[in-house]
Amino acid sequence: MVWATENFPQFTPLAYLEWEAQQDCRYEFVDSKVRPIPDETCDRAIIAMTNFRNMLQEHLHCTICRVFGDDIKVQTLESDSFLYPDLSVSGDVHDRSANNFISHPCLIIEVLSPNTETYDRGEKFELYRQSPRLQEYVVVSSDTIYLDVYRQPTAGLWEFSVYSSGDMVELTSVNFTFEIDRVYNNIIFEIGT
Q1: How crowded is the C-beta side of 159, counted as CA atoms within 13 Å?
Q2: Exposed (0-12), middle (13-18) or buried (19+): which is 154, by Cβ within 10 Å?
Q3: CATH 3.90.1570.10, applies to 41-184
Q4: pTM of the model
Q5: Do the Cβ atoms of 43 and 187 come closer than 8 Å?
Q6: Closest CA relative to residue 13, chosen from 25, 30, 26, 27
Q7: Sign for the pseudo-dihedral over CA of 136, 169, 73, 91
Q8: Can you tell me the distance from the alpha carbon of 61 to that of 28, in angstroms, rounded to the nearest whole number?
Q9: What's the first-to-final CA gap in the chain, in angstroms?
Q10: CA-CA distances (angstroms) from residue 119 to 15, 34, 110, 112, 150?
Q11: CB 3.0-4.6 Å disulfide test: which of 34, 111, 115, 143 passes with 27?
């Protein structure tokens, strides 16, 4: 991803938060630089904001965990970056009164697009790993029934699981097992030529 360095001053984290609150679109913040968030496609919005979010909220409704949408930033504490995941979950006391960012998610979910896949799997995941309570990072395909779960069972050690159509997905961070096909309800994929 290209970080916007032209036309934008270098920011401190506080200056970024104040500046972004006045903007018409959302910006991520890394190393004192900002990057606008690209618009979503309808399928990405349905996958993240409707299907996955509804499943998580239903599963977590009687717990202390809260499900956050793409309008809530995650602050990575070591680098003091602010990133926008598609979905995140936190049950940490530090995040209970969060208004526009959290710092201790246990689960982060990104729905991939051709424009963001390299960034979501690379630099963004590297930044998210600086979140002290993060246990799982999920990347979800938006053009086929397929998702990857990166899981940290031991501090500093990440395991990788792949799921496709017909599989049962296990998210240990929120004690949730579900059929992957539920994530793709109401999504019609184009047939390749």
Answers
A1: 8
A2: exposed
A3: yes
A4: 0.90
A5: yes
A6: 30
A7: negative
A8: 29
A9: 29
A10: 25, 14, 11, 10, 15
A11: 34
31: left (phi over 0), alpha (psi -120 to 50) or beta: left
Task: Indicate the residue type of 171.
Answer: L
Q: Tell me the two tokens of residue 103.
A: 């710092």
Phi first, then psi, for residue 88 (nearest 5°) are -150, 160
Q: Is residue 110 within 8 Å of 132, Cβ to Cβ?
A: no
Give dist(CA 60, CA 118) in Å, integer.
30
The pLDDT of residue 8: 67
What's the token pair of residue 93? 């006391």
Rounded CA-CA distance 87/142 in Å is: 15
**In one letter, which amino acid is 100?**
N
Walking along the chain (193 residues) 10 residues at a time, the average pLDDT comes out as 57 92 90 82 72 94 93 88 95 88 96 88 93 94 93 88 96 96 85 54
Q: How is the chain split among helix, strand and coil, in percent rounded to 5?
A: 25, 30, 45
**Distance (Å, rounded) from C-alpha 127 to C-alpha 105?**
13
The token pair that represents 43 in the structure block: 């399928």
